[in-house]
Design brief:
Blueprint: H1 60-81, H2 110-122, H3 126-129, H4 145-154, E1 157-162, E2 166-167, E3 172-181, E4 184-194, E5 201-203, E6 208-210, E7 220-222, E8 225-227, E9 231-233, E10 236-242, E11 247-249, E12 254-257, H5 260-267, E13 271-273, H6 275-293, E14 310-311, E15 314-316, E16 322-325, H7 327-334, E17 339-342, E18 345-347, E19 354-361, E20 367-372, E21 380-383, E22 391-393
Antiparallel strand pairs: 1-3, 2-3, 3-4, 4-5, 6-9, 7-8, 7-10, 10-12, 11-13, 14-15, 15-19, 16-19, 17-18, 18-21, 19-20, 21-22
Length: about 400
């Protein structure tokens, strides 16, 4: 019966075999000492006839055996880390965007990975689809069944076809897929990485980014869900809006978002006043301006300041100023629209025709009436992000 050294190495054939250790004995590997014989602690004498010991060299056969054993160990280790990039091997759920405690997706190749991902999206299964993508860069607030269901109602995903993967130089893989969204064909590449160590797959750009740039304080909504920061969406159709009723999205509000080109289209979206916002802004400005027009003081919160105005030695008398909006000004006010100037602030560059007449007095106490066509009206701004919007003239 063959014997093995500690560590699993078999003794060469013909070498003396160590005696078995009886129950209760505390001897380590090696022969059992003869009666009366005492070994020093940790010392095990070489068996008689053995070619190794304190002053013995290893035999040629032993050296060859040790070298061969080392080569076998190295080959086993090498086989453990070499995994064909596009071959089998488990897909790594921990490399995807889903919960690492969840079971890894069954897809084993990049092609299967892309097909399984798009299939899950087309079936409205957000919980399954999110396992296949990297969600570490942006918010995942829109990667839900609710948002995905609304997306598929706007444009179903069909006709999924996945091409063959193309390998890069550093375990990176490109997979091209075509599919339709609402009947419109989409063709795009998915950039992926597959570990050569354990076969784990990471889809680097499976989802598309929705930019919230320009919607600070206004609140961008996607399929009815507000997103405060840049967020990811599955390929699909999305309706964009705002969380404030006074605003809407300028231009087309329903967009297909599936690749870099459509991401750019989303990044160009900007808020604009809704019909409700236009009406509210016009009403606030009209009320505030008419209050200013009714004032007889030298200056008003709206501007139209005549302080220091003189003519032929006559200075304006405070309390005698009359400001009247002419027909041109009334028409401009009635059609006032306003525009988003910053965040949720709305202003206008519209000019209003206002006639101003004053009573002026000279040093001798003589008075006269003068009229000026320079109004000096300030710009009316309204911040709709505050609890009670009001006009501030600047």
């Amino acid at each position: 019966m063959a014997a093995y050294l500690p560590g699993g190495h078999q003794l060469p054939a013909g070498e003396p075999q160590p005696a078995p250790v009886a129950p209760g004995q505390e001897y380590g590997p090696g022969p059992v000492p003869a009666p009366g014989q005492v070994y020093a602690p940790g010392h095990v004498p070489a068996p008689a006839g053995a070619e190794f010991g304190p002053n013995k060299k290893l035999s040629t056969g032993a050296i060859i055996g040790i070298i061969a054993g080392g080569i076998v160990v190295l080959l086993v280790l090498a086989a453990a880390v070499i995994v064909p990039l596009l071959g089998g091997g488990g897909g790594g759920g921990s490399s995807a965007g889903g919960d690492k405690d969840e079971a890894a997706p069954a897809a084993a190749t990049p092609e299967e990975w892309v097909e399984a991902y798009l299939t899950a999206v087309s079936e409205g299964d957000a919980e399954e689809a999110v396992k296949y993508i990297d969600t570490s860069s942006y918010s995942a607030a829109l990667l839900t069944d609710e948002v995905l269901e609304a997306s598929l109602k706007l444009g179903p995903i069909d006709d999924i076809e996945v091409g063959e993967a193309e390998e890069g130089d550093y375990s990176d893989v490109t997979v091209t897929a075509t599919f339709t969204i609402g009947g419109k064909e989409v063709s795009r590449e998915f950039q992926m990485y597959q570990s050569s160590y354990d076969g784990d797959i990471t889809m680097l750009d499976g989802a598309a980014r929705v930019s919230t740039y320009g919607f600070d304080d206004v609140g961008l909504t996607v399929n009815g869900v507000e997103v405060p920061d840049d967020a990811l969406v599955f390929p699909g159709t999305y309706e964009f809006g705002t969380s404030l009723e006074e605003f809407t999205v300028e231009g087309e509000s329903i967009l297909v978002v599936a690749d870099e080109k459509s991401e750019e289209a989303v990044s160009m979206l900007r808020p604009a006043l809704s019909d409700s916002g236009i009406a509210t802004y016009r009403e606030l400005v009209t009320t505030s301006l008419r209050e200013c027009l009714a004032m007889k003081t030298l200056n008003t919160p709206c501007g139209m300041d005549v302080t220091g105005m003189e003519k032929d030695g006559y200075a304006v008398v405070d309390g005698t100023v009359t400001r009247v909006m002419n027909a041109e000004g009334e028409a401009a006010l009635a059609g006032l629209v306003g525009e988003v100037s910053d965040r949720a602030v709305v202003s206008t560059y519209e000019s209003f025709g206002i006639d101003i007449s004053v009573e002026a007095q000279n040093a001798e106490g003589q008075r006269g009436t003068y009229t000026t066509y320079y109004s000096g009206l300030l710009t009316p701004k309204v911040d709709f992000a505050v609890e009670t919007p009001k006009v501030v003239w600047e």
